[in-house]
Amino acid sequence: MLLDAGNALWSTQDLALETQSKVMIDAMNLLGYDAMALGDQDLELGVDVLRQRIADSKFPILSANVTLTKTKELLAKPYVLKQVGGHGVAIIGVTGNLRQEVATDISDAYVVLKADDVLTKYVAEVQSKADVIIVLSTLGYDEDMRLSSAVPGIDMILGGVSRMPMQDGWRNEKTGTLIYQAGSQGEWIGRRTLHLDSAGVVQTYKDELIPLTEDYADDPEMRGFLDSYTQK
Amino acid sequence: MKRLLTFLCLALCALAVVVLSVGCGATAPPTPTPTPTPTPQPIDLAVLHTNDVIGYTEPCG
């Protein structure tokens, strides 16, 4: 299962600006992502562009706490349920607040709800359907730690924003929630292996943080995809 | 004659209803065998994850 915890779309880099981040969605489609969360920076694309990117993606883009000011509806799906080896896996997305510097014509379009409330609601909703509950969060590490105590029932929080390259996760001893981040800028990928028993209970886990160095050869298909953009 | 024809018509209709509802030489349908639900097995769930792949170069929180 390949997941992204947010802030993979918005950027000031030329190719992202020229394509309104479509290049990122196309690349993530090619990589076979299973789900991603909307990050606080991703919101800076604006509602209309985000809707287009959500439509372009072959995987669910999630946010349980970003609503549209005008309609009060969620901008994106709050969660997705997947089946892995006969076990249900729920993935919930939560988004952090936009920077204060963001222009009001963009920021005023959203209302970012309090994460505690939405997570309590959706964890309760998916608990009977999933053995494993994963939260993709762009709230920052300190907030992830606080939420792991405030909202029991979450097996794993894969976070961002703080951009910490965590070889080992942090485990909440009271609730058992595991918290991870995988650095930033595509320099690492985290690989966390949970061993579930037949009842779907996490018995043991293994942590890896894999540096994505030049030791890895370029994937020919991805190379061809990037060249098709840069050679235009 | 008219009464006979009426009776035969009604009898044929009744027979048609019986045949259509039961079928000629029909037998009771077999009891369907329930499909067994597979029992979940222990698994290793591998989760690969990324974050902040692009965006601002300095951390925000």
Explain what the structure shows.
The complex is a heterodimer of chains A (232) and B (61). Chain A is 27% helix and 27% strand. Chain A has 232 residues and is of the alpha/beta class. Chain A has a single domain (62-230), classed as Purple Acid Phosphatase, chain A, domain 2 (4-Layer Sandwich). In chain A, helix 2 (22-31) runs antiparallel to helix 7. Chain A is globular, with a radius of gyration of 18 Å. Chain B has 61 residues and is an alpha+beta fold. Helices cover 34% and strands 13% of the residues of chain B. The radius of gyration of chain B is 35 Å and the shape is elongated. Chain B has 1 helix and 1 strand, in the order H-E. Chain B has one helix at residues 2-22, and one strand at 43-50. Chain A binds chain B through residues 1-11, 13, 16, 24, 39-41, 84-87, 89, 96, 99, 131-132, 134, 138-143, 156, 158-163, 180-186, 188-200, and chain B through 38-57, 59-61. Strand 12 of chain A pairs antiparallel with strand 1 of chain B.
Question: What is the SS-derived class of chain A?
Answer: alpha/beta
Cα gyration radius of chain A (Å): 18 Å
Strand order of the largest sheet of chain A: 5-6-8-9-11-10
Total domain modules of chain A: 1
Fraction in beta strands of chain B: 5-15%
State the major sheet of chain B. none
CATH topology of chain A: Purple Acid Phosphatase, chain A, domain 2
Give the beta-strand count of chain A. 13
C-alpha geometry of chain A: globular
Summed over residues and divided by their number, the pLDDT of chain B gives a mean of 66
What count of helical segments of chain B does DSSP give?
A: 1
Dominant shape of chain B:
elongated
Strand tally of chain B: 1
How would you classify the helix and strand content of chain B by structural class? alpha+beta
Which radius of gyration of chain B do the C-alpha atoms yield?
35 Å
Low-confidence stretches of chain B: none
Q: What is the chains' assembly state?
A: heterodimer
